[in-house]
Design goal:
Structural class: alpha+beta
CATH topology of the largest domain: Protein Transport Mog1p, Chain A
CATH superfamily of the largest domain: Mog1/PsbP, alpha/beta/alpha sandwich
Number of strands: 15
Number of helices: 5
CATH class of the largest domain: Alpha Beta
Distance between the termini: 122 Å
Strand content: 25-35%
Number of domains: 2
Strand order of the largest sheet: 4-3-5-6-10-9-8-7
Largest sheet: 8 strands, antiparallel
Length: 271
């Protein structure tokens, strides 16, 4: 009869693989926990970053460019009182008022009227600028309010009892004297808004280069600090201490991909 292993020896043999399996499973469980913990931490950090990014996007509104409604308006220069303004040439006429035969206002006009009359069967809307040496005594006691003209000017004004007209007196900061500005107040708020926009473009010309350019009836480009004209002379440019260019493109400041004439224009540029 063969020798049989004792019961204790059998249990020891079977226990060794069981212990190894338990240790292996424990190690795998530990590794799984570490991996799960790592991914949980990474997920939490990602959520924090996404939340932070979203809050930055919400708190930083997208800026939209401001459109200038007067960008395509025509500029009128008055060299007699050294002022300029812009107006919509398609809707308004600018006339030399206060004379028997009204015609387009020139640069040396004393009375300048902006006229809006889309329907000739109805009364016109007027915005008038009159050069005057002083404020009449009859008006001084009536001045009871102010009106902002342009960016830096404040006019003293009064309104008629029927609220039909407003009369303002603006001191000329470059030459002395005053501008008497008067206009009829419309019941149409769109027209009143248009008048306010015209006022916003008003300024006294205190740049000597600009003044010299305009007095020669050349065109002044304030954005580029340039004076231009087909008849601008090198003598003028040297006198004003500018740099003369005898043949520049008339479209040099426009879209290079747009349509341009082959016109050659003389330019005096200032630093």
């Amino acid at each position: 009869m063969e020798n049989q292993p004792e019961v204790g020896q059998v249990n020891q043999v079977n226990q060794k693989p069981n212990n190894f399996l338990v240790i292996l499973l424990s190690i795998l469980l530990l590794i799984s926990c570490v991996i799960a913990g790592f991914f949980a931490y990474q997920t939490q950090e990602l959520v924090k970053e996404l939340t932070k990014t979203r809050s930055l996007v919400i708190s930083s509104p997208i800026s939209t460019p401001t459109i200038d409604p007067t960008a395509n308006w025509k500029t009128y220069y008055n060299t007699k009182a050294n002022y300029s303004l812009k107006y919509p040439v398609s809707d308004w006429k600018i006339l030399n008022t206060g004379v028997i035969e009204e015609k387009e206002a020139g640069q040396d006009s004393t009375n300048v009227g902006l006229i809006y009359q889309p329907d000739i069967s109805k009364a016109a809307h007027e915005l008038v600028f009159i050069i005057t040496p002083s404020v009449p005594e009859t008006d001084k006691n009536k001045l009871n309010q102010t009106k902002e003209i342009g960016d830096n000017y404040l006019a003293n004004c009064w309104i008629t009892e029927d609220n039909g007209y407003e009369f303002c007196w603006l001191k000329n900061s470059t030459q002395g004297g005053y501008l008497n500005i008067n206009f009829n107040i419309s019941k149409d708020e769109n027209i009143n808004s248009m008048i306010d926009q015209i006022f916003s473009t008003f300024k006294f010309i205190d740049n000597t280069k600009e003044e010299a350019c305009i007095k020669e009836k050349y065109t002044w480009l304030s954005k580029y600090n340039e004076c231009e004209s087909p008849i601008l002379t090198e003598t003028f440019c040297k006198k004003e201490k500018g740099t003369f260019y005898g043949c520049e493109s008339a479209c040099r400041h426009e879209d290079p991909n747009g349509i341009c004439t082959t016109e050659c224009i003389a330019v005096c540029k200032f630093d």
